[in-house]
Amino acid sequence: MRRQPLREVPADWNAIPILSCKSLGEIQMALAPGALDPSVRGILYDVEKWRFTPVEEQRAPAISMKRAAAAVRARGLLFLTAPAVDLVPVLAPDSGRKRQDETYLRLGLAADAARYADVFDIQAQRFESDAARYARFVREAAAQAKRANPKVLLLAGLSTQPGGQWVTVDDILRAIEATRGIVDGYWFNMPKPSAYSPRVTDFRPDIAIEVLRRLAGRSWPAPDGADR
């Protein structure tokens, strides 16, 4: 039996509704008088190398995020950022494709993302099948972000099919286990095949459900090694 989509967040959930925008123009439209749903408490600026973010914003993400922050903060809303790793070939076209995580950090994109944000989502999901690489990128991006803004809340990206890659429940759990002491939480994406996710071939909420089920049954050690 198919269930209807969840249209309202249950009252007993500790949730903060946000609106995801892909461009400054979209943010401006969202902030127009009467346009924003009163329940929305934050705006996410998702800058990526795709047709939804104008090329001029892709080429100057630091400036674009600063402008977005000013507009969002002026409305008393939370500001979230999530510049993607695929901005690297836009900003450094001669850097090559193999170590885009290293170039992302060298370009200071984590610092730029965190400087004016309340929340920074480290889009590390493309590396989640390699827990060591995922953890290294998240750790270094988190450190860079905290140097720029010690108060920023840090999330790490997870996905059931990052960029069309097939991953397992165990891959995702290993990525979480390797980074749970570094970030404040996770942004868990369950993409469907769409213009936003052109390489995704299948919708896999079952993977996310199994990850959450197994997390709920785990007893995690405290950071100091003591049992929780």
Task: Describe the structure in brief.
The protein contains 9 helices and 6 strands; from the N terminus they run E-H-E-H-H-E-H-H-H-E-H-E-H-E-H. By secondary structure, it is of the alpha/beta class.
Keywords summarizing the entry:
single chain; 228 residues; alpha/beta; six-stranded parallel beta sheet; globular
Radius of gyration: 18 Å
- Content of β-strand: 5-15%
Distance between the termini: 39 Å
Number of strands: 6
Q: What is the SS-derived class?
A: alpha/beta
* Main sheet specs: 6 strands, parallel
Q: What's the total helix number? A: 9
Strand order of the largest sheet: 1-2-3-4-5-6
Helix content: 25-40%
Quote the average pLDDT.
92
Q: What best-fitting shape do the alpha-carbon axes yield? A: globular
Low-confidence stretches: 1-6, 224-228
Q: Give me the strand/helix succession.
A: EHEHHEHHHEHEHEH
Overview of the molecule:
- β4 (119-122), α7 (131-148) and β5 form a beta-alpha-beta unit.
- The protein contains nine helices and six strands.
- α3 runs parallel beside α6 (109-115) and α7 runs parallel beside α8 (169-179).
- The protein starts with 17 loop residues before the first strand and ends in a 12-residue tail after the last helix.
- It has a six-stranded parallel sheet with strand order 1-2-3-4-5-6.
- With 228 residues, it is α/β, with parallel strands linked by helices.
